[in-house]
C-alpha cells in the first residue's frame, strides 16, 4: 500500500485550476522532493494532503485512509510557511499543548525531551514572542516531530533556517527516513532537498511535469530537472 | 471524555494567551464601561423610562463588547499559521470550536461581571434580591452570543474585512437570544418577579442555546476545511 495515493486531483480557485489532474503515489519510507516554480501548485497540493483543504475533484488516500480521518491526522505532521506555534505561550507550553492535542501519554515529558533535542531547554519557559527567528524555527521543528509521525509534509522547511538549524533538520529527516517514515517536502532550495530525496516530482502550472527517482544528474546539477521538464 | 479533554486544551490555551496579551479583554471592558457611562449621562437614571430600556441597553453593550472578543477568537490563530497547525492535528473542528466557545464565554462573562456593578450604580438598579436570576440570564444569554459569534468568527477568519463582516452577519442571528435576555433583564431591572408569562423567554434562551450549539458543532468542520 502506498503511503500517499493521489488520483486525478484537481483544485479550482474560482475558475482557475491551480491543480490539473495530478496523479502519483509515494511509497512508504521514501523522501519525495516536490519541486516547481512559484505558483506551480506545490503548496496547494501539500495543503490538500495535510487535510487543510479539499480537492475539487479526484481522490487522495493517506496511509490507506481519507486525509481528514482522525487516524490519518494522528500519523501525519505538517510544517508549513508559518511556524505554527503561539507567541503568547512559552516553548514548553507550546509543545505540551500539541502533545496533548496529539493524545500523547506524557505530554510534559515529550515536550521536555524535544526542547532538549532542539537545544531550547535553556529557554524552556521563555515566551515565543521573545525568541529569535532561528529559535522559533527550531521550536516549529520540535512541534512537527514530537508525535513521531509516519508521514511528514514539509513546505519550504529550510527557509529562514540558519546553517545549524538546517543541519539539525536534515539530521532529523535522515533519522526519520532511516526509521521508515515517509517525507514529502516542497522547496526552492534544490540542493538541500535533493541530497535527502529518493524521489522527485516536478509541478509546472498545476500539472505534473515529472515524477521519478532522484538521479545522480539531478544531484550534480539541481537545475537539470527544470531545464528538461520545467520552464526554462 | 477525550473530546472534552482536547476541547479544554484549546480553551485553556486561548485563556492563557488572553490573560498574557489582554488584547480582547482590555478593549471590550473599556468599551462596555464607556458606553454605560455615556448613556447614564444621556438619561435621568431615576425615570421609569430608563428602567424600561435598561435591560436592552445592558445586552446591546454586552453584544457589542462581545464582538470585540469574538473578532479576535479565530483571528489570533492566523499569526504564525497556528490555525493550520491546529487543523492538521487530530483535534476535530467540533473540539476546536467547543474549546474556543468556552474561552470566549469565560472572557465575555468576566467582562459582563465587571460591567454589571457599573450598570447597577449608574442606572440606580436594585436587584440584590434577584442577583441569582440575573446570573442565570447572563449565563444563558452569553452562551447564545458566544456560540453564534464563534461560528461566524470561524466563517469570517479569512476575509479581509472580517472586523466589519462579523458584526453584520452575527447580530441578525443573535436576535432571538438577545430578545430573550433583554425581556428577562428588563423584568429583573424593574424589580418584578419573573412570572409564568416570562417563562417563554427562558425557554427561548435554552432552546436557542441547545439548537445553535448542536448546529455549530455539526457545521464547523465544513466551515473550517470546506
DSSP strand (E) fraction of chain A?
Answer: 25-35%
Outline of chain B: globular
SSE pattern of chain B:
HHHHHHHH
For the record, the count of structural domains of chain B works out to 1
Q: Tell me about the biggest sheet of chain A?
A: 6 strands, mixed
Strand count, sense and barrel status of the largest sheet of chain B are: none
Gap between N and C termini of chain A: 36 Å
Which protein chains make the most extensive interface, counting residues with beta carbons within 8 Å of the other chain's beta carbons?
A: A-B, 33 and 26 residues
Number of helices of chain A: 9
Number of DSSP-assigned strands of chain A = 9
Shape of chain A: globular
Low-confidence stretches of chain B: none
Task: Indicate the structural class of chain B.
Answer: mainly alpha
Segments of chain A where pLDDT lies below 50 for 5+ residues? Answer: none
> Kindly state the mean pLDDT of chain A as a whole number?
91
Largest sheet, spatial ordering of strands of chain A: 5-6-7-3-8-9
Q: What structural class should be given to the helix and strand makeup of chain A?
A: alpha/beta
Give the C-alpha Rg of chain A: 18 Å
Distance between the termini of chain B: 27 Å
Percent strand of chain B: under 5%
Explained architecture:
The complex is a heterodimer of chains A (232) and B (226). With 232 residues, chain A is of the alpha/beta class. Chain A has helices at residues 42-49, 70-75, 91-101, 107-117, 133-145, 163-178, 190-196, 216-220, 224-229, and strands spanning 4-13, 16-26, 31-35, 57-62, 76-79, 151-155, 182-186, 199-204, 207-213. Chain A is 36% helix and 25% strand. In chain A, the strands form two sheets. Chain A has a six-stranded mixed sheet with strand order 5-6-7-3-8-9, with helices on both faces. In chain A, helix 6 links the parallel strand 6 (151-155) and strand 7 (182-186). Chain A is globular. Chain B has one domain (2-224). By secondary structure, chain B is mostly helical. The A-B interface holds A 47, 50-54, 68, 70, 73-74, 76-78, 80-89, 93, 97-98, 100-103, 127, 136, 143 and B 2, 5-6, 9-10, 13, 16-17, 20-21, 79-82, 84-92, 221, 225-226.
